[in-house]
Amino acid sequence: MKKIIGSVVVLGLIAAGCASTYVSEEQREAQALAMMKTSFKENGQAKLDRLDQDDMQKMCSRYHGDTKMPKEVGEKLEKDQQAQIKYPADGTYLGDWKSGERIAQSGVGKQFSDNPANPNGANCYACHQLTKAELAYGTIGPSLYNFAKLRGYTPEMQKYAYGKVYNSQAFSACSSMPRFGHSGILTEAQIKDVVALLMDPQSPVNK
Ligand code: HEC
Q1: Residue 185 belongs to a domain
Q2: Does any ligand 1 atom lie closer than 6 A to the CB of residue 165?
Q3: d(CA 206, CA 147)
Q4: CA geometry: angle at 63 spanning 58 and 65, to 5°?
Q5: CA of 65 to the centre of ligand 1 (A)
Q6: pLDDT per residue as tens digits for the range 132-167
Q7: Ligand 1 binding pocket includes 142 (Cβ within 6 Å)
Q8: Is the N or C terminus of the chain more exposed, i.e. has fewer CB atoms within 10 Å?
Q9: Is 104 part of any domain?
Q10: CA of 207 to the centre of ligand 1 (A)
Q11: H/E segment holding residue 10
Q12: Is 180 in the pocket of ligand 1 (CB under 6 A)?
């Protein structure tokens, strides 16, 4: 009898243990977010809302490692992001490549110590080769040297380059490239300058 009571108690404990430790995916995400919010401090322009994920980011967190994102989920996310791209109202995509080169070189902006009134940089070189002259560049992204020379100087390619810089994830869900227009890092004029760096025949990218 004692033994049976013992087993019942043990079984009861196991059941209670399961009930109290089971947490759904959503609960886990909420707990992780709450924990991060208590451990980060707001400072200057770096506010805690930076930890809030949009639909794209949530899905990218959910599908990672061995849990591959189903193709149709990725395609739907890309379509949604494409619909949010704001192309220039005047229909032109190219600014000044020299200014674009300065923006691509600059890693300033968006940090707590930066003055939000100043323009942000894009730090393209942190991930891409762009010109022959610059020897220090990252390789997370593909080399963009000779981008337009190889891909064509067409209006369609200009529009693609604009959209890609505006919102990289519209063409490649969960890309690690920042969404420069979508996230308010670069202005329309700055994106045009960076697109000119990629697309202008006079740009060192195409020399
Ligand atoms: C944090 C890294 C990172 C930064 C910063 C970054 N990129 Fe990228 N970029 C990538 C990665 C990774 C890819 C490849 C995956 C993809 O297509 O999104 C890519 C792809 C691209 C492509 C598409 C290339 C193709 O063959 O179609 C273009 C164009 C591009 N980047 C331009 C830029 C420009 C211009 C900047 C600066 C304004 C920039 N990137 C900043 C990581 C980055």
Answers
A1: yes
A2: yes
A3: 7
A4: 130
A5: 21
A6: 999 999 999 999 999 999 999 999 999 999 999 999
A7: yes
A8: N
A9: yes
A10: 20
A11: helix 2-21
A12: yes
